[in-house]
Design goal:
Helix content: over 70%
Strand order of the largest sheet: 1-2-3
Distance between the termini: 61 Å
CATH superfamily: ABC transporter involved in vitamin B12 uptake, BtuC
Radius of gyration: 22 Å
Length: 367
Amino acid sequence: MTAGITARLTTRLTTGRTGRGHGLLIGPVGVVLRTRPLAATAVVTVLLATLCAISVFTGSLHIPFDRALAALTGGGTRIEHLVIVEHRLSRALAAVLVGFALGCAGALTQTITRNPIASPDILGVGSGAAFFAVLLVTRPEVTRALGDHPAGQVLAPAAIAGGLITTAAVLGLSWRAGFDGMRLILVGIGVNSVALAGVSFLLTRADLDQADAAKRWLTGSLAGVRMGEVLFMAPLVLAGAVACAVLARDLSALRLGRHVAPALGTSPGRTEAIALLTAVLLTSGAVAVAGPIAFVAFLAPQAAMRAFGTIGPPPPAGGLTGALLVLGADLAAQRLPTELPVGVPTAVIGAPGLLYLLNQHRRRTSA
């Protein structure tokens, strides 16, 4: 009997090869190892590691490689530690975490709405989080009303609360005996406009110092990010990645339609609620750290779907692509003659991408 159990649990690689890859059988569990996603993951990971190394070891202030390495390992002078660890490393890690959060959130949003142009940006999540963050920065009396804590301590919770409140408003206004993807997007655009108008109003009423402190919530910026904010984002991103892994099967079933998913053992309502909550938390955390970085949540899942060869927007691959996009854009923005916020190059890249997808959608519907 023991021999029979051992034989059934033995790992066997299938000898055949399909167009999707190799089959791996571990007892009753079968997994398809697809060559293209594995290759794309390896390429994106190598690119991320390369850009991180460039970001940490190069910059306007030249520090020799051995001194930079010493600062990373706990040695070096105080100035070298501040430049390498507190400025360069924290900024690079923040770019990776923020990009992963936005790309993953965008893939979740596009999956549950079954619409390639849906993203937390369009649904108003980012602008709602930004409104609450700017409210704390520009209105000291609000901070005092919350217990007179330093604004930095309540900024992240306030941004997350803003994202949740905005999402609740969008869901409440778009509910008509159920949710429709297009109605959700249209209501989200309206709520997004109201939140952005609120941000502009707060900035017009703020003094110069307050407006300067709140400027990252206009275009998104990683300048001034410190290791404390990286440590805040890391567990949030890890929890989001775990949630996406747990929801992977249900999300795949949901892509086939809400009427088909129950036949595959998936509860559409539960899956959509958990996926949307995960997307809101990831987006709100990213906005709390870097402000609303435009188009990443929209563009990264679509780019990942084409690069990784998946049927729908894959959350983990979308996160990796988003991390690469934000880190590359921030690195390029730092190397310009005049340093720009990271949201400017992402908008330059994302706007043509949006127009391309809209044109593709128009062609499919007209055909």
